[in-house]
Design goal:
Layout lengths: L1 H26 L11 H16 L5 H16 L1 H9 L36 H9 L17 H9 L3 H18 L7 H13 L7 H23 L2 H6 L12
Helix pairs in contact: 1-2, 1-3, 4-6, 6-7, 8-9
Length: about 250
């Protein structure tokens, strides 16, 4: 049954959260380390994280409660929205250096061609603002999810929330309509990719839309490579001697 898999994934997620937090601390240069700069360093950091969690003077129940609390805090995005609403004058600390004119080009121009390309670090900036301290975002010990609705309020005020959510809904519905009639497998590939990865609601507005633009570019490049000629994708004929996935 599908719920068996869900239960296994849930328990695994809860038990791994303390390890994940320890790993993130090591990657960010915590615990007297200098961070991670290579694949070998990432592997060593993972082993160190397991050792750190395993070496604590705590029972299995303590670790379970720690992981459960971390998991619920991670999923409780409504609290993050409320935190943004209460920032007041500190809201200016969260806004980064991105400008909306950068939206179409930001995903495609590499940093070595654009040395001043802004870093999308609103999560770290939000952490500093909530802690009531200023400084370089790299000094933040975590990245707090600002959420899409929360950032809409931060960027555009109260009216930005319904307008921004409406725009997101219209775009999502447009892609859904592409697969609501006779199935075009190329359109289905795009829809599935967007459904799985395209709308991370914990992200800020700029990061969500730049990520979606980049994802769409990749999907539209990949779909003819996956399915070949458009007429074959429309008719559902077998490709390379294989049975069609969708009749």
């Amino acid at each position: 049954m599908w719920w068996h898999l869900f239960v296994i994934l849930f328990f695994g997620l809860v038990l791994l959260y303390p390890v994940s937090n320890a790993y993130r601390s090591i990657v960010r240069g915590g615990g007297g380390t200098e961070g991670v700069a290579s694949f070998e360093g990432a592997a060593e950091a993972g082993q160190m994280a397991f050792r750190n969690v395993g070496g604590r003077e705590s029972t299995g129940g303590d670790r379970w409660r720690e992981g459960l609390n971390d998991a619920f805090e991670r999923f409780d995005l409504l609290t993050n929205v409320a935190q943004v609403l209460t920032l007041g004058s500190r809201a200016s600390m969260v806004k980064g250096d991105v400008q909306w004119w950068m939206l179409p080009i930001y995903p495609f121009v590499p940093r070595f061609l654009w040395p001043s390309k802004p870093i999308l670090d609103e999560g770290a900036r939000l952490t500093l603002a909530l802690e009531g301290r200023s400084g370089d975002p790299i000094s933040a010990d975590s990245s707090t999810a600002i959420t899409y609705p929360g950032d809409l309020y931060l960027q555009f005020g109260l009216v930005g929330i319904p307008v921004g959510m409406c725009v997101l809904g219209v775009v999502a519905q447009w892609f859904t309509n592409r697969v609501s009639g006779p199935v075009d497998r190329q359109a289905l590939l795009v829809y599935v990719g967007i459904f799985l990865f395209g709308f991370p609601i914990e992200c800020d507005v700029f990061l969500l839309w730049t990520g979606l633009i980049k994802l769409l570019a990749m999907l539209y490049i990949l779909r003819p490579l996956v399915y070949g000629r458009p007429e074959l994708a429309r008719t559902g004929l077998p490709l390379s001697g294989t049975r069609p996935l969708i009749a």
